[in-house]
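Teaching assistant's notes for section 4

Start the section by putting this record on the projector. Ask students to predict, before seeing the second block, whether Protein serine/threonine phosphatase will look compact or extended. Collect guesses on the board.
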Amino acid sequence: MLVCSHCQFLNPDDHNFCQRCGSSLVQQTCRYCFAKVEPDQSLCPQCGSAVTRRWWAIVSGLTPPSSQDQEICLDSQQRYQLTSLSQNGGEDDPEVEGMVCDRQPSQLTSVQVLREQMALHQGTVDMTDPTAVKSYVQQSGLVIPPQACAYLSLQLQFPRAIPALHDAWYQNESADCPQAQILLLDDRSTYPELLSLWGNDSLPAAQLLRWLNEMTDLWIALEPWGCCPSLLHLSNLRVEQGQFLTLRRLYSEGEESCSLPDLLQVWQSLFQETSPQRQQEFAPLLQELAQSSSWQQIEDLHLLLNQVTTHWEAEGREAGEVAFVPDNLASILRTTPDWTCGDVPTAILPNQLIQLEAVGQTHPGRNRHHNEDFFLIHQHLQHLSNPSARQVYVQGCYVLCDGMGGHANGEVASALAAKTLYQQMQLHWQDTLPPPALLEQAIRHANQVIYDLNEEKMNTGLARMGTTLVALLIQDTQARVAHVGDSRLYRLTRRGLEQMTQDHEVGQREIDRGVERKIAYARPDAHQLTQALGPKRQESLHPSIQSLELEEDSVLLLCSDGLTDNDLLEKHWETHLQPLLDFHTQLEEGLKQLIELANQYNGHDNITVVAVRVKVRSQLPLIF
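Reveal the predicted structure now:
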């Protein structure tokens, strides 16, 4: 099947245009500028970016080609063209790794379909158990190499640390040759190696400790699959976004299984690359780890690292501050309560904001002649840069309102609510993020202003003006979210799309009372609002407020229901939202494409979206 890059509809393989939206299935779309690119072009004619999808191929049991000059495809359908390769295995079991170019990026693979099905069935099938996963795959009818099952399972558990599997299959090289195994993965070969960062003395000690903890977590998950050697190849340990440990690929155990002392040896090798000062900081810990005979259970090692972290925190050290492992580590371990691994917190390194961009767009909708939506963006940015670091300090207020009460009244209510909230924030927002009570007070004030105007004009019934509201306040890496009604906030990260607010409407209210979703939304008044600004006195108003921590690169989306109706974002986030995580992608053009999609599928209402894109990094000391 061919998946339309515009609407994600599945089309027959022999179609050139999408049956649902009419978009070309042979043209590609540049992920950076969204220009249309012909199928025979590898570069975007508008911005020059590469548009073909590339995957990292791992091939076992296939004789490598004698020349790289010839055009070689890994599959019989001539879809995956090999562009670079290297041989890793021996003569008895040759293994080839390299880059492949996907000539049919719109063609959905069976592995991709299986991956989505596994994600949906995590609640009913233990996707961490190799036996259960292999049985699930077998029942699906898909025949794939055993290691492909490991990728599918582990990537569900560690979406950032394990590269996603794109395709996998067996292939016979010849009639008298055993089957070759071919895996195609997300390419992480360009990520920096952990070893290259480990020796950076400007990194806080807590970051190194965090990486050690992440390795123990991965070891526990890799062990049932026989993939612990993945942590023993230093070149396989990579870092994403300067702080997140990730694996380039999975390695399986050979005839001899690996053990925990092998992992400790890797840690010793890492610390050998650090300065004498850094080695001195961790000397007591390294001495404990050197007694490899004492560490036979990964849970004990995990507990040791967490106890060191807990001791640092007990002495009042900040997570990012350079800290020394105590000399009396042994006595600490003897006196520390016997917690289980899951009960002990792991130190999280503070983050800092290094880039922020915000864009808003609105459209009346294809079936509307006026627009009752309103959005407001106000942000104050300060940039700090030096040869070793850069940082952004921000105070940002982002508001979206969806008015109601007719042409004149709806427009007035939405604009009045947004501007009133902003004015209240201007009066009371100092150097720290306003507390929830202050934000609620500002929302109640906006409600009162609209309510008083209704009373003054003697508006009644449907003519009584009102509006929904969703507001986002950002102070550096701290954020506060408030909403009233069915306007929503979504958070997009590399892990996927997450709805952060719950609609204030009858259907959701019934669900909160224990009614099944299907029954709750079968009511004729299911989408009737239970909360809005303006129609009623503030005594009946109960805004929802929550706090967020910006811990990773994200796009925060404030949306009116004209955009979110019919689960539009949930169905199309991979094609229309995921590219926006890349700061090379034009955010304004991306929102334009999103509104066009909403007009095509919804269009019955005004459509408004505000996108706030943030890039964060580990908090490193600034050097002046």
